[in-house]
Structures are given as C-alpha cells and as structure tokens.
Amino acid sequence: CNVLLVFFQQNANGKVSRVIRIGTRKSQLARIQTDSVAEKLKRLYPDVHLEIVGMTTTGDKILDTALSKIGEKSLFTKELETALERNEVDLVVHSLKDLPTTLPPGFTIGAVLKRENPHDAVVLHPKNMGKSLDTLPDKSVIGTSSLRRAAQLKKRFPHLEFKDIRGNLNTRLKKLDEKDDFAAIILAAAGLRRMGWDSRVSQILGPEDCMYAVGQGALAIEVRARDEDILEMVSVLHDPDTVLRCIAERAFLRRLASLTLSPRCFCYSVLSSVSLYLTGAVYSLDGSDSLKETMQTSIASDNKVEERVDERVQRVGVTANNMPGPAQDASEKLGLDLANLLLSKGAKEILTVARQLNDAR
Ligand code: DPM
C-alpha cells in the first residue's frame, strides 16, 4: 500500500504551503519546457512551492542506439514514472510526441498545453545559406534519425540522401556547423523555438513535404491517475483545441502502433470551430510505397461540460474532465476510423515490410 507523502513548506510570514515536485529530464530542452510549465503554475497558484527535480533516463544514456530500433518503449519516461509512483515527484513534463499512446497503469496525462508550430524545420549548414531542400545540390546529405522524416522527404526530394544523426539538439547543431558531414538537418520547429534558435530555421515543411509526428509541438503533464488534487491543479492548463487534435492523432497511432515502428507513423490535424480534420499516412522506409487519407468529424454538437462522473475517464492516456466528453469521443473515433480506413487499403502490408527491413538494417 502506498503512503502518500505530502510535503509542506513554511514561508517567512509563517504561512504553510504545499510543496509540488516537478520531475524532468536533464537536457536543456527538457529543462526549458519544464521551467515554462512551472512558471505557468506559479502564476496560477502563487501559494504553492514548486521544486524541480532533474533525472537521467535510460534513453539519455544509450544515445548511440538508433532511435528507430528502440520503438515505442518508454525509455525516456520510465525513471520519471517510477519517481511519480514513489511520490518523489508529483508531475512530470514531457513532449507529448515522446509519450506512448498507452501509458502504464496508474498514470495519466493531466494536461496537454497549447501546441506550438507542429511542423518540421530545415536547418542549413552555414555554407548553404539561401538554399532550400529543392535547390540543394544532388546527393546532398541530410541529417535525421527519424524514419518518418526520411521516408517522406526521400519521396518528395529524390535528389537528396539521408543519414542518421543523434544526440540532443545542442550536439546536433554542433555536428552540423563544425563538420562537413551534413548539408542540412531536420528538426521540430517547436524544439528549435524553445531553445531560442528560430533564426536558424530556413524552411518550415508543410504537410505536402513532411507530415509531423503524432502530438508534435505540444507539451504534456503526466501525473498519478488517482491524484485528484494534482489532476485538478494541472487541468486548467489544458488547451481544448490541442487536446482534441492530439486525442485524434494518438487514437490513430494507437490503432497502428502494434504494426508500426511507432511513433514513426504520421499525421496532421486541423481543427476549425465546427470540424476536426485528420490526415494520416503510412510510408515504406524509402517512401516509394505510401497510403494517405483524410477524414473529418463534427465536434461542435454539444459544448456543455458533462456532469462530473466519479470515475476519471481517460482517452488515449489523456484525462480532460473539464472539457466536453462528446467532442473528445468524436476525436478519438476519428483517429480510430482513419487508421481502420488505411488498414482496409493495405497499410498493414506496408508497415510489416518496413518493420522487417528496419530490423535487418
Ligand atoms: C520522436 C521522434 C523524435 C523525437 C521521431 C519523429 C525525433 C528523432 C530524431 C518520437 N521524438 O519525430 O519522427 O530527429 O532523431 C523530440 C524532439 C522534440 C520532442 C526533437 C525533434 C521537440 C518537439 C516537440 C525527439 N521529442 O523532433 O526535433 O516537443 O514536439
């Protein structure tokens, strides 16, 4: 049986406030993301004392293994979840795209924050200033270890070559600038922006060039599913549009996850005031074979928040009890329907071959 440890701190004028511990990975990007969430919480709850606890995860230690061989395992999240389980921390900040679509029992995503630019961006070697993927010379080498990016870009820009590049963002930029191995690298625009490297972005890739990963650009707060106090505290950070889009995207991925080198399976979604559009695709590793479909659902039918139910409902890991349930259900169904449509058109065959080829690499 778990003993709930609640920490309190007394401030100068004798007032007692609860101490909330936030777990984070130690990379610069993870710290920046965690600090931004801590600032938001501090503004909303000035009496709460926040403490940030940095941790190293297995994923941080095995940087030499190709990410594509690791699969949808919780390498970057396991140590942080253990700390949550032991009440050593109360919440953990992640990039949503790094969170599996099925969380281990006992955990939930208590907040999905407003999504930044979800697209991928091109960062050029300084000597290529002024060029774009289109105009880079034949056989230029592009650095990315994302199978998703490589497959789509191979198809779209057949004159380019793609090679793995690993390490955190700082390491990658160094590898690009200080050596002559890569003409450009591809990174998420959101990560670059948070690091303050907007000025290095020379091109944003739209969905016709490269569809982004499920959940890309959104931050998620993972909490203990039974911790009502913390759930309530973080739920105000939910951005309703982002929640609906990401539920649809994650439902799409979850349906295909057992088949795919997930989360390297891609989609993009667009939400208007009345409709949610979701486009999803599967690609062979070299991009020669692919399937892409778009579906749409109406989400504006009922905007009333449901009566509070006793049991907390999770949808693809997300708990958003302060938002209308029917819209969340419609989003989840949209993702599932789109995955089923792709499966009916042969997605399974494409993904099975891609997986076998990747395992043999
Ligand atoms: C996942 C992928 C990558 C990260 C795979 C993919 C990129 C790996 C690589 C699931 N997680 O996107 O197809 O380039 O070798 C990651 C980044 C961010 C979160 C960095 C990035 C920042 C953006 C965000 C790594 N996770 O993608 O450039 O918060 O969405």
Automatic annotation (TrEMBL):
Keyword terms, alphabetized: Porphyrin biosynthesis, Transferase
InterPro entries attached to this UniProt entry: HemC, Porphobilin_deaminase_N, Porphobilinogen_deaminase_C_sf
Gene Ontology terms, MF aspect: hydroxymethylbilane synthase activity
Record flagged with keyword Amino-acid biosynthesis: no
Span of domain Porphobilinogen deaminase N-terminal: 20-231
GO biological process, one term: protoporphyrinogen IX biosynthetic process
Similarity annotation: Belongs to the HMBS family.
Protein name from the UniProt record: hydroxymethylbilane synthase
Organism: Oncorhynchus tshawytscha (Chinook salmon)
